[in-house]
Structure formats: C-alpha cells, structure tokens
Design a protein that fits this description.
Elements lengths: L3 H8 L5 H21 L9 H12 L9 E2 H12 L4 H12 L9 E4 L17 E4 L3 H4 L10 E3 L6 E3 L8 H4 L2 E4 L4 E4 L4 H13 L5 H4 L13 E3 L2 H9 L1 E7 L1 E6 L5 E7 L6 H13 L6 E6 L8 E5 L5 H11 L3 E7 L1 E4 L2 E4 L2 H42 L1 H10 L3 H12 L3 H9 L7 H26 L1 H19 L6 E3 L15 E7 L3 E6 L5 E2 L17 E8 L3 E6 L3 E6 L13 E2 H4 L8 E7 L10 E6 L3 E6 L11 E2 L9 E7 L4 E6 L3 E6 L13 E2 L9 E7 L4 E6 L3 E6 L13 E2 L10 E7 L4 E6 L4 E5 L13 E2 L9 E6 L4 E3 L6 E3 L9
Parallel strand pairs: 8-17
Antiparallel strand pairs: 1-3, 2-3, 4-5, 6-7, 8-9, 9-14, 10-11, 11-13, 12-13, 15-16, 18-19, 18-21, 19-24, 20-43, 22-23, 22-25, 23-28, 26-27, 26-29, 27-32, 30-31, 30-33, 31-36, 34-35, 34-37, 35-40, 38-39, 38-41, 42-43
Helix pairs in contact: 3-4, 4-5, 8-13, 8-18, 13-16, 13-17, 13-18, 14-15, 15-16, 17-18
C-alpha cells in the first residue's frame, strides 16, 4: 500500500533544471546589482556605505562627539543592518576614511587606516572613528520624513532606503563596483564645479552637456596629478563611457654640480606608491632605463616625494618620457557612469546624473516642507487652544478647580470652549508660570509666528520655482562651507609618446659596406687625429667588402632606404644595429622586409623628417631612364613595412635616389656610353606614386647604369667593364633639355666594353673598382688626371682573362670634422681591401 507522503511527493510538479537555474541566477544577479555592488544615483552610496553611516548616526557618532572604537561601529552595522562579514563592513569604514581614496572623506579616522603604499589598516579594535562634518549634509533632515524607511534584514528595525543627501556624492566621491555582467567606475569630482553645474542646470533646464562642461571640467582625483586631454572626458560625459589618461606631477631639481634629479610629487589615482617605486627600480636593475643612478622615497605626512637622481649629462625630459611609457606614472582611467535609477541599473551621461540628483533634492525638499507644515499646523492648533485659555484664564481656573478629577476637567474644557482633546490636555499640562503677563505675550507672539510659517510653507508647496530657489540657496551654502580648489590639473593632450621621445639625441657614425652591412657607433669611439693621420679601423669586412658610405647623424634622424622595386623604408638611426668599432654590423636585408629579388638601391639620411620643409626633394632614376622628383615632405608619414615611393613597371627598376637642393644638375650615363646633363628644375615636382618623366631617350637595348647629382665643379668618372675609364670636367658636358638622346660620355668600343657606372669625384676621393672575380682595387682620384670628353679613357685596372668590372663605388671619406673643426676624426677602410 502506497504511503500518503509518497503520494504527495509524486504529485509535486516537475521543474526543468535549466529553468530553475535561470530563475535562481537572475534572482542572485539582481540581488548583487541592487543590494551590493552599484551605488544609487541619488546619494551615491552602496547599501553597505549607507548602512555604515546610518549606524554611526544612530550611535551619535557625529563629528562633534568623541571618537569611538571601529569595532563598535562594525558590530552595530553587521548586527543591525548589514548581515555580512565584519571584514566587508570594516573595509568600507576604512576606505571612507582614506583621503587618498575619497576626494571628500566621509569618516574621520583616528589611528592607522592604511597608506598609499598598500599598507593595510590596523585591526578594528585598535582604530577609532566618527562621522565627518560633511556627513551631516548626507543625513540632514533624515528625521523629517524626507525618505522612505524599509525593514532591516530581520524586520526588527527600520533603515533608510536612501539618504536625503544635500551633496552630489555620486560625483564628488565617485564609486567603483563589479556586479554580475556589469561594472561601474565613476571618478571623483570637485564639489564647487559639480555644484556650479547643478545651479546652471536649475537656471537653464535645457543646458547642453557641452555647456555643463564649462563648469564641470572633469574628474578631480584626491591624489592630484594631471589629466591629459579633454576628449576622453567629453566622451564619458556624453555617452557615459570614456577613458582619461592620468599622469604624475613631476619637476626637475638641480643637484649641485652632480647633475639633476626628477622629483615625483603627485601620482595617478589608485596607484600603489611602493609598487611604483619598485617598478622603477626593476627597470633600472634590468638596464631598460640607464639614466638613473639612485631612487629614493622621501614621502612623509606632508605628501609624496620620490626622488630619482640622474647620471651626469642625462636629459631629464627623455627620462621622464621613458618613465611615462614604461611605468604607472602614466595610466588610464576607464569611466563607466553606471548607477541604480529607480531600482534599475542604467548608464547615464553627466546631465542625466545631475537631473536625477536634482529630482531627488526636489522630492526631499517637498517632503521636508510638507512634514514641517504638518508639525507647524499641529503646534498652531495647540497654541490656539492656549490662546483661548489665556483669554478666559479666570473661567478656566475656576472650571478646573470645580472638577472632581482631571478627566472631568478635560471633558468640561472641551465642552465649554469647543477644544480638541489635545488642546484640552495641553491646557491641563500647562505650568502656572505660563499665566504671567510676559508668558501670555510670548504665546500670542509664537502663535502669530507659526501662522506666518504655515503660510510660507504652503506657498513653497504650491510653487515649484520656490522649491528650486531653496535648493539653489542650499547648494550655495554647501559651496561656502565645504568647497575647495581643484587638485587635478587638466592639460592639453600631449602627443603620443613615441620611441624617439625616450631616446637622448646623440651624434652617431653610421657606416654601410659594399656588401650591404650597416651599423652605428658613437662618435666618441673615433679618436681625433691631425690631418694626414693614418686613421683607425672602422669595420671588420670580408676580403671583397669595404665601407662605401659613412654618415654622421643624430640618433633621432631618419634613414630612407629606396629599393629596386620602388619601395621606400624608414628607419630611425637608433633602430640601426649598434656595433663595436670593428664589428661588421648587420645585413640590411635582415633589417628591412625586402621581397624576392629586391635590393636596396639608395640610402638617404634625413634630419628632422617630420618637421622638414618643402625646399628639398627626392630624385629617383630608373634603369629605363624615368626621372621623378618628389618633395621630401611626401615621405613624412612612415610605415614600418614600407611604402611605394613611385609607380614602376615590371621590367624596370630604380638605379639610385638622391636628395637635391633645388639648384643641382643631374648627370645620367647609359650602358652604351650616352650621357645627358640637365638642370633638376627641368623635372617638375610630382606625387609619391607618380611614375616620373623621361630623363633620357634610350636607343634599343640600352639602359641607364649610372646617375650623379652635380653640385659644383666636380669631375665625372666614367668606368667601362673592360677596366678602362676616364675623369672629365663637368664643364665638358653641356646642359641640355631633359628627354633627349644626349651625347657620348665614353665610347663603348671592343676595347672598352659597356659602361658599368659613373661617379662625381674630386682629388680627395678614392674609388673602389669591383671585378666579377671578387678582385677589388682602390684608386685615389688625385692619381687620375682630368682628360677631355672625346677621349677613350685609360686603363684603370689590370684584368685577367674572363674578368670584367661589374661595379664601382666611392670609398667613404676618411675625414670627419669634429664640432670644433680643429681636428679630424678618421675612418679607415679594411686594410684587406687595399691594392
């Protein structure tokens, strides 16, 4: 036989587990959202903060009373209103007492309440606390029926659902919290600015957010510092979400004759100072920052002071930029203006937050006025009874004397003078001293005053404008009593901190070898020598390699690498590999993202590319004789993977690129010995992607093999593949129009072979001739006399059978004049490349 309890169990409806989980999780989520994690837009408090302040008020723990133990406060909070762990309640109390966490602290703490270094507060049994003076504005008029009260967790007591707050706490102290599926992060603001915004909103309800921002400038963090830029603030105020960049406040102090020190006096909000100092120390230890010799934390009760001693001759601005980039001295603050509005979480903009607070104040003032009216009418009713009694004092006394007991006297007073029970009872309770003439006058005066107050309160309740005027006056008083100046300064957004902002400008020597190796060295590695010195070895090269280009450039200068396919790559000097004085360096092909069969055709160093003017141009010449001139400003916007510097056909390639001044002439030589010499003004400026114009009219199967930019009275060296060449004065080549067939530079006879290249040279230069077998000869130009254009040239190199010249290159000059110009710094090619 089936038991009845089993039957009842069988009759219970079955619930799908996914449905029950969904319902239970939603209930939990809403409990967290409404009851724990998010602040109310009206008083800016989460339930635990509200309950803590209310419990302190109920304890009489106000700003003008003695401190009491934190443990006592926490006990009342968790025992009466907040049934959670004591650590949660104490952590709340501690945070509200920290002047580095709260812009306007709500708890006045005595004892150890933690520090900016991340030190935790002392145990609650050791600390004491009380409310601050500002708290009186949060709980003002709480006993005047201004807000609704709700039962506490066990229905034994009542607690306010919201505080009547006269201050816009949601903005001036901000809030942070993580709920289920949502989070809030409201930054603190300056009280005066927010009050001014509220006053202007009262005066002009249609005010725009942009106009409000003229008064509410942005967050004001208790730790000071800077906010960089206003774009993030504007976005947050308009949409409810945005990001602002916080930056530490620093200055530079002179440290006697030993250099300078960077002093940090204010750090970003919510940044652990000890962790910040540790981070900087770690960067110094790892040698990621090499300019700091010592770090000291000299902070005390007067404020933050972290001192960074710089090594001698280091540039403070560069080090500061490094610190901003690598440490939390600069960090972002993500703003999310999420609040509880009518028991629902909403993301609000600035105006909506102010409007909701104003609506709350309007309700509070209206309910307070209605409460005061009720109390005034009750008192007027009593005073009216006393007035009647005073006017008939003899009869009243006789009536009371004749009565057998108080109840009979009370009933007789009600009957005789048409009084209410409370009026009659008040007359019976009246002391005899009230019957003196002076006291009688006071009662009449008080009665008249209360009638005036009633009239005023009724007027307020019937006039919305009057309510707003009262709110405005309260705001002005709040500003007078508690307003202070802004701590966080808002500055214009600085440019993005680029890698070069963290590099100290320093003169470097950059060397490029014939085989395509590049490196940089400090100029100080090349010792000063008198003119004619032997020089020092500047690069270890292969037997068939030698230094072809040597530049002096700042670490912040830019090198443009033009490739044969028309692409251009940008590399800062500080990005080039640093090597010892005798190191080979790094292959350029490993430095750039070159494609198959792509090689570097030219390297152009440019100073201050980002701010360069348009007077200089980049001239490119292709194998098919196309010439293009582009303003150097077209190359201001670099791309790491390179850009196309010109449009080039598949069967063509760049021979060279050069920077021209606008007053140079161009000399082009072809494989078959033809040349053309024209002024660069004959080539108009074109865009970066243009293909160029015809520089020389090539015959069939001919191509350009050499280009020279002529700046003065240089001579032209032309070399052919069979080892012959000649040096001819530039004046021998007349200036022609661009695009012609040109004139012979050298005859390409069976003896000479085809032309392999051309250079502009003077007596100080040395030229390297390279054969297909790897043989290299260095030829000083002062040993080669200048001859006429119509000559066939002379033998420059003795070649074996099946050998021929494949190229020529200028050897890097051995003299680099130092800054004083007295001595020369010399660079010597590898001795193995000498003939």
């Amino acid at each position: 036989m089936t038991d009845s309890s089993e039957i009842q169990e069988m009759e219970k409806p079955t619930i799908a587990i996914e449905k029950e989980l969904r319902k239970s999780y939603l209930d939990y989520a809403m409990s967290v959202i409404i009851g724990r994690a998010l602040p109310d837009v009206r008083d800016g408090l989460k339930p635990v903060h509200r309950r803590t302040l209310f419990a302190m008020r109920e304890l009489g723990n106000t700003y003008n009373r003695p401190y009491i133990k934190s443990a006592r406060i926490v006990g009342d909070v968790i025992g009466k209103f907040h049934p959670h762990g004591d650590s949660a309640a104490y952590d709340t109390l501690v945070r509200m007492a920290q002047d580095f966490s709260m812009r306007y602290p709500l708890v006045d703490g005595q004892g150890n309440f933690g520090s900016m270094d991340g030190d935790s507060a002392a145990a609650m049994r050791y600390t004491e606390a009380r409310m601050t003076r500002l708290d009186q504005e949060l709980v003002a008029d709480l006993d005047k029926d201004t807000v609704d009260f709700v039962p506490n967790y066990d229905n034994s007591l009542q607690e306010p659902s919201v505080l009547p707050s006269k201050i816009p706490n949601i903005l001036i102290n901000g809030s942070e919290g993580i709920a289920v599926g949502m989070a809030t992060k409201i930054p603190p603001h300056n009280l005066i600015e927010v009050i001014e915004g509220l006053i202007h909103l009262i005066d002009n309800p249609n005010i725009s957010i942009h106009e409000l921002m003229e008064h509410v400038h942005g967050p004001d963090f208790p730790t000071g510092g800077f906010i960089c830029g206003r774009a993030g603030i504007r976005e947050a105020y308009e949409t409810g979400k945005g990001v602002v960049i916080m930056r530490s406040k620093t200055h530079v102090e002179q440290r006697g004759k030993n250099g300078e020190s960077i002093v940090i006096t204010e750090i970003p909000y919510q940044q652990n100072k000890a962790a910040l100092v540790e981070k900087i120390a770690l960067l110094i230890k790892e040698k990621r920052i090499n300019s700091i010799s010592e770090i000291r934390d000299e902070s005390d009760r007067h404020g933050v002071r972290v001192v960074l001693d710089l090594k001698k001759d280091e540039i403070a601005d560069v080090v500061i930029n490094q610190l901003f980039k690598m440490t939390p001295l600069q960090k972002s603050f993500g703003i999310i203006l999420l609040c509880i509005v009518n028991n629902r979480p909403e993301i609000l903009n600035l105006k909506q937050i102010l409007q909701h607070f104003l609506a709350h104040r309007r309700t509070v003032v209206y309910r307070r006025t209605a409460y005061e009216l009720r109390k005034a009418e009750e008192k007027a009713h009593i005073l009216e009874g006393l007035k009647i009694a005073i006017s008939n004092i003899d009869e009243v006394v006789e009536l009371i004397k004749a009565a057998a007991n108080p109840a009979e006297a009370k009933a007789e007073l009600i009957r005789r003078f048409d009084l209410s029970e409370i009026q009659a009872q008040t007359i019976l309770d009246m002391r005899l001293q009230r019957l003196t003439g002076l006291e009688r006058d006071k009662i009449i005066q008080e009665y008249n005053e209360i009638l005036e107050k009633i009239a005023w309160l009724k007027k307020v309740l019937s006039d919305e404008g009057l309510i707003m005027q009262i709110i405005r006056e309260e705001f002005e008083q709040i500003t007078t009593d508690y307003g202070d100046s802004r701590k966080t300064e808002i500055i214009d957004a600085p440019d993005e901190i680029l890698p070069e902002d963290m590099i100290a400008p320093e003169t470097m020597v950059v060397t490029v070898s014939h085989s395509g190796y590049i490196k940089r060295n400090q100029l100080s590695l090349y010792r000063a020598q008198k003119r004619g010195g032997k020089g020092i070895k500047g690069m270890t090269t292969l037997e068939d390699d030698f230094v072809t280009n040597l530049y002096t450039a700042s670490t912040l200068d830019t090198f443009l690498f033009f490739t044969s396919t028309g692409k251009v790559f940008w590399r800062k000097v500080y990005e080039l590999p640093m090597g010892g004085r005798t190191a080979r360096g790094k292959a350029i092909v490993n430095l750039l993202e070159l494609g198959d069969n792509e090689k570097v055709a030219a390297i152009l160093p440019v100073t201050d590319l980002a701010n360069t003017d348009d007077s200089r141009s980049v001239l490119t010449v292709t194998k098919k004789g196309r010439v293009k001139k582009t303003s150097i400003s077209e190359y201001k916007r670099p791309l790491r993977r390179g850009k196309f510097g010109l449009t080039i056909k598949d069967d063509d390639e760049i021979i060279t690129a050069a920077i021209t001044s606008g007053d140079d002439s161009i000399f082009i030589v072809t494989k078959k010995g033809m040349s053309i010499h024209f002024h660069e003004s004959d080539v108009r400026l074109m865009g970066r992607m243009a293909s160029g114009v015809k520089g020389i009219n090539l015959s069939q199967e001919d191509e350009v093999v050499g280009v020279a930019v002529v700046e003065g009275d240089d001579s032209i060296l032309t070399v052919s593949e069979n080892g012959y060449g000649k040096r001819t004065a530039v004046s021998e080549y007349k200036i022609q129009n661009r695009g012609g067939k040109g004139i012979f530079a050298i005859k390409t006879s069976e003896r000479n072979g085809y032309v392999v290249g051309v250079l502009t040279v003077d007596d100080m230069d040395q030229v390297m001739l390279i054969a297909n077998s790897g043989k290299v000869i260095r030829m000083p130009m002062d040993t080669l006399r200048i001859i006429g254009r119509n000559t066939q040239g002379v033998r420059l190199i003795n070649l074996e059978e099946d050998e021929y010249v494949v190229g020529l290159s200028m050897l890097a000059r051995e003299d680099i004049v130092d800054e004083e110009g007295d001595d020369d710094l010399t660079e010597q090619a590898d001795e193995s490349s000498e003939d």
